[in-house]
Amino acid sequence: MTNRLTRRVFAVAVTAVALSGLAVTGAAAAAANGTITGIGGKCVDVTGGSNANGTRVQLWTCGGGTAQQWSVRDDGSISALGKCLDVAAASTANGAAVQLYDCNGTGAQRWTADAGRLVNAGSGKCLDATGVSSANGTPLQIWSCSTGANQQWTLPVPTQEPPNGPCPQGPFGNPLPSPTSTATKVRDGFNFLEGPTWDAATQTLLLSNMRDGTGSQNVQPSDILRYTPATGAFETFIANAGGNGLAISRDGKSVLAATHDQRSVSSYDLTTRQRTTVAANHQGRLFNSPNDLTIGATGTVYFTDPDFQRANRPDQMSGRTGVFRVSGGVVTLIDDTIREPNGIELSPDGRTLYVGGNGTGKVYRYPVNADGSTGTRSDFASLNGSDGGTVDCAGNVYQATYNDGKVNVLSSSGQSLGTISAGRNTTNVAFGGPDGKTLFITSGTPSTGGNTGNFGLYSIRLNVPGWPY
């Protein structure tokens, strides 16, 4: 299927309103993420990779860097590096410069896909490569629309989900078989298990197995294991992955990992198992030790950064532990006032972000805006040492509490629906299985030295399928 622009979803959603100066309203806007290519197969590129207001946008050989990663949204905006594609000074003149600028929703920043062209809403002019050139460094401008090759653009293909995403249509009943349920042990004998996530393509569960710290910095090595329920087999999928929390990407092609070994967020290609960095630092300062993460529909990654696995490495966060998001390669601080934030998950509709405060005994929630930013934090529940968590298709929250070895199940309003017991010291949970109704739980006894920990994987069948991200 071609991704040449021919009034596909982006165009349909925007064309009806863009030229009248109105904004798209309703549910959170969807996005397609990736490169935009033009004449000569060159990529639309932010000069110097800078996100300063006024930075010119140009053509350059495609290289896959963040300066060439664009988010094309149904509200008509096109953004990279946290800023929007903008016509300088909202000009309508031929030759007006195209630049990056703070997103503001004006016509100068709204674009309509039409027969391969990108029409600017404020001017009615088309995105144009100056001088019909494909040379590296060719600046982009607006110009009266034509059929020239320098006005032909190929946008990334959006990933379309059904209205309910991977969830079946509700309504849903009580998710628990009984108010005090008990999970069954699958297998133990692991040193410290964390971060389970379900890979639907292979019908397997990925999870992290951390070992005791080594070397002068006492950093904990960690492997990604793969469990195949159909055969009962466990294998080392990626050795020395260095991670804790895991999450399968929305396209199912990679697994994202909160990697404490490099104090970063990483992505591992599920085919090649090659590692790339998603977030290396915030404003030049290394994170403490990223712990858990979740992924929004537009690819925005949210993650927590306590200091549990920072070990003997220097603190660059001035004693604070935080919650962050990554969008378009830009890392933004959400909150650095929670002591030891841990588990993090999004509601199925993407409008609520839940964060467990391991050091506060509370679970918090944030409203999520259409652009992936978050609103004012509020208290959701008080629990005994919250750790990892997940949600189901009904919006119920499953919060592991390390101190009592349980999974607390809460409705979206915060009402307790019951608990699930699974050994001791429960660390994390994830839904999986062919129908999504199997809850996997990691729990056990930590090491007292020499990798003497005894953690196990547990499972229980529930009545409501889970949200996989």
Automatic annotation (TrEMBL):
Binds 1 divalent metal cation per subunit. A divalent metal cation binds at E194, N342, D387. The active site is at D387 (proton donor/acceptor). The keyword Cell wall biogenesis/degradation does not apply. It comes from the Bacteria. Residues 33-156 form the Ricin B lectin domain. Substrate binds at N291. InterPro entries: 6-blade_b-propeller_TolB-like, Ricin_B-like_lectins, Ricin_B_lectin, SGL, SMP-30, SMP-30/CGR1_Lactonase, TAT_signal. Belongs to the SMP-30/CGR1 family. This is Sugar lactone lactonase YvrE. It comes from Actinophytocola oryzae.
